């Protein structure tokens, strides 16, 4: 199972000090988190996409390209790529190029996002969100697998014999997860294509996400990709840990109370009890995360938010250290126990699968640390053609006979 962190990159003041970071500081902090994640022995760093304040990451491909140059083993992912308002041609081109630069260490999490205003900004209609997601992804899927693509759709100009460049690395497209907070359509789309399903797993009760995962697993099997347990599931979540649970609750409470995602719904204690929010000691975090297996089955990826709601960089780096030193090694061991052989590992491009955990810098050069980057530390050692019916919203532009090369998992 793969473990990592994700950041949505919002600007928020630290409620304990009142200090608001600058955009420059926040962007540099996100890259510092990614570098520390690799040093701590984690597997994945993901960043969101937003085009409105208070967020700073409007171009995930740019940020991830920089992180790719600073790391050697870390899988890089979006969280989320807006499949509704981005042109699928540009998505195909930009992320295929980034896949080459990163040596295959690239995934995409595709979704509709949570900002309604973005639709008119990019010439789209919010009321067409589901249709846009279906049509745009159908085109993206073809562009990475076919050349001389002919396309007629409703959301963009026609294509006549179009080939996107560069082609995916070694002919294997980036692995795609379809993310959902509440939408069964995303689970269906993931199942139809045999892609991964990423449950947001943040703010709603665990049972809500469990139903989406169950739907995805069942439909994955019905579409002929394998058994339900072979479906590829990723989970989000937020984590805040300290050596003593009372210290974690006390320190996290101001951030919880100021968070627009949490405030007004439950108290901190109620939220931690009912939702996947994990606040406490390392042992309590391990127990809660292990409990996700009962709700979701065996999964392939778990990502944690560690910098939400104004949590400063120094504190977020401490959370990554605790994950790498105290939590993830235990989770790897415990989750591996009893894991059926049929359950696939986390997705990894074949070109990156055999990359050593601490490869030498490219061309003998490693960029110098910047003032906002953490001091570099040694990494913590790690322990060990189906029959389908199309989703209702996928209305145009599908070549059902197209070959679909599968990546190694």
Overview in brief:
By secondary structure, the protein is an alpha/beta fold.
Number of beta strands: 13
What is the helical fraction, as a range of percent?
25-40%
Low-confidence stretches: 356-390, 392-409
Percent strand: 5-15%
The average pLDDT is 87
Give me the secondary-structure category. Answer: alpha/beta
Strand order of the largest sheet: 1-2-3-5-8-9-10-13
Could you spell the SSE succession in H and E letters? EHEHEEHEHHEEEHEHEEHHEHEHH
Q: Regarding quaternary structure, how should these chains be classified?
A: single chain
Molecular shape: globular
| Largest beta-sheet details | 8 strands, parallel, barrel
* Rg for CA atoms: 20 Å
Alpha plus pi helix count:
12
Termini gap: 11 Å
Q: Could you characterize what this model shows?
A:
The chain is 37% helix and 13% strand. With 409 residues, it is of the alpha/beta class. The chain has an 8-stranded parallel barrel with strand order 1-2-3-5-8-9-10-13, surrounded by 5 helices. It has a two-stranded antiparallel ribbon with strand order 6-7. Strands 11-12 form a two-stranded parallel sheet. The longest helix is centred in the last third of the chain and has 24 residues, at 313-336. The protein is globular, with a radius of gyration of 20 Å. The N and C termini lie close together (11 Å).
